[in-house]
């Protein structure tokens, strides 16, 4: 017999997962939907499938880390405390949404659980230190990898993946048989197909990486309490994410929902690939990663690399200078502008890194991405420390 309190806990966890599905589907599949490569229902279906695959495989490591290893005594994870932790996660994320900042659900979840552990005197400082170290290191890695790509490889990469959409649809659906069969439209070219497949594949990678890291944010407290087993917890969370993808994500898909998807196509692919790969790597280690912060620093690194690019990779190897090198903003490459080589224009005409990203906005985002988890941590600590009902 399932207790009513456990039902409440499952519903609260599914509500958190529901919001995760709504907020992450847009950044993952916004470019593909915006390019008319796939429809919104297809994007939602892909989000649900690949999120679940990530959660079912590597996501278990992060659930275990948050639910069992972050505190030395899992006895503090009573059912009441688990529900309260999920409540603080939701409240803190709401603060981020009010300020228009995509806060890190992973950092917020860790903060709320850490507040519980501090109040009970059972926080494992070694595990917490390991998580914090990776939180500092991973954005730095994302920054430098993206900077190198922007500095030496972006122009050539852009020429490889840039595409112009044909006037017709990508596919026609042959409905003459019992089963509808999609066929390539007569106006669709190979380059267009390859670019579309790349954008969709990147979206699937982002959905998978979200599943590896974010499933723990919704279900780790309940799994840690011992009231809910790992497998059904992941199933419940995956269902809620899919529902969120099919419902509230429709608006974020229309607007492409984040700074990442507002970038030019090539830049979006670079940022998504670097960030998702780092998140999957950290999830394999059981580290709850912040995709938002890694992606933010990747955007900054890519812009900085483009603004300071002196030569291409082939020029660096051969020592020769080629004529058309580009130092303008990311969007200039995307529009195919032909720009003079370095040295042909006045140094004052070379854009500064600040021209490629807004330093004020970046500072506000980074600040709020640290304030939101702090709210969850402090709120959870004060509640569990001084409210007698929890008995911590």
Structural account:
It contains 14 helices and 2 strands, in the order ααααααββαααααααα. The protein has 392 residues and is an all-alpha fold. A two-stranded antiparallel ribbon has the order 1-2. The two termini are 27 Å apart. Residues 256-262 and 321-351 have low confidence and may be disordered.
Furnish the topology, listing elements before pairings:
Layout lengths: L3 H31 L5 H17 L2 H11 L9 H20 L6 H16 L4 H37 L9 E4 L6 E4 L5 H36 L4 H17 L2 H7 L9 H20 L6 H17 L5 H6 L11 H5 L24 H28 L6
Total helical segments: 14
> Into which percentage range does the β-strand content fall?
under 5%
Strand arrangement in the largest pleated sheet: 1-2
- CA radius of gyration is 23 Å
- The percent range for helix content is 55-70%
What's the total number of strands?
Answer: 2
Main sheet? 2 strands, antiparallel
The 3D shape can be described as globular
Low-confidence stretches: 256-262, 321-351
pLDDT averaged over residues: 78
Order of helices and strands: HHHHHHEEHHHHHHHH
Report the structural category: mainly alpha
C-alpha termini separation:
27 Å
Task: Tell me briefly what this model is.
Its main location: membrane. 68% of the residues lie in helices and 2% in strands.
């Amino acid at each position: 017999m399932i207790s009513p309190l456990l039902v409440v806990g499952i519903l609260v966890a599914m509500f958190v997962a529901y919001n995760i599905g709504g907020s992450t589907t847009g950044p993952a599949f916004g470019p593909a939907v915006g390019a008319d490569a796939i429809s919104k229902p297809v994007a939602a279906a892909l989000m649900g499938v690949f999120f679940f695959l990530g959660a079912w495989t590597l996501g278990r490591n992060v659930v275990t880390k948050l639910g069992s290893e972050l505190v030395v005594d899992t006895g503090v994870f009573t059912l009441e405390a688990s529900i309260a932790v999920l409540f603080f996660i939701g409240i803190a994320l709401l603060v981020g949404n009010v300020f228009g900042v995509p806060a890190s659900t992973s950092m917020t979840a860790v903060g709320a659980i850490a507040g519980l552990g501090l109040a009970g005197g059972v926080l494992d400082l070694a595990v917490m230190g390991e998580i914090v170290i990776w939180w500092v290191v991973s954005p730095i890695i994302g920054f430098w990898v993206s900077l190198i790509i922007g500095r030496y490889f972006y122009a050539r990469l852009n020429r490889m993946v840039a595409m112009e959409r044909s006037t017709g649809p990508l596919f026609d659906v042959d409905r003459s048989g019992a089963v509808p069969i999609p066929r390539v439209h007569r106006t669709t070219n190979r380059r267009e197909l390859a670019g579309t497949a790349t954008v969709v594949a990147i979206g699937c990678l982002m959905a998978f990486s979200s599943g590896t890291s974010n499933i723990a944010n919704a279900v780790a407290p309940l799994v840690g309490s011992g009231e809910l087993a790992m497998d059904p917890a992941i199933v419940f969370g995956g269902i809620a994410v899919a529902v969120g993808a099919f419902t509230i994500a429709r608006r974020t898909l229309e607007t492409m929902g984040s700074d990442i998807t507002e970038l030019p196509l090539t830049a979006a692919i670079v940022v998504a690939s670097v960030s998702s790969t780092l998140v999957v790597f950290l999830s394999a280690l059981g580290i709850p990663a912040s995709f938002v912060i890694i992606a933010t620093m990747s955007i900054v690194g890519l812009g900085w690399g483009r603004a300071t690019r002196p030569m291409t990779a082939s020029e660096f190897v051969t020592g020769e200078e080629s004529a058309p090198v580009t130092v303008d903003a990311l969007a200039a490459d995307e529009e195919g502008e032909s720009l003079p080589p370095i040295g042909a224009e006045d140094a004052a005409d070379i854009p500064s890194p600040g021209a490629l990203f807004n330093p004020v906005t970046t500072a506000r985002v980074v600040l709020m991405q640290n304030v939101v988890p702090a709210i969850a941590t402090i709120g959870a600590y004060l509640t569990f420390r001084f409210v007698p009902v929890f008995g911590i």
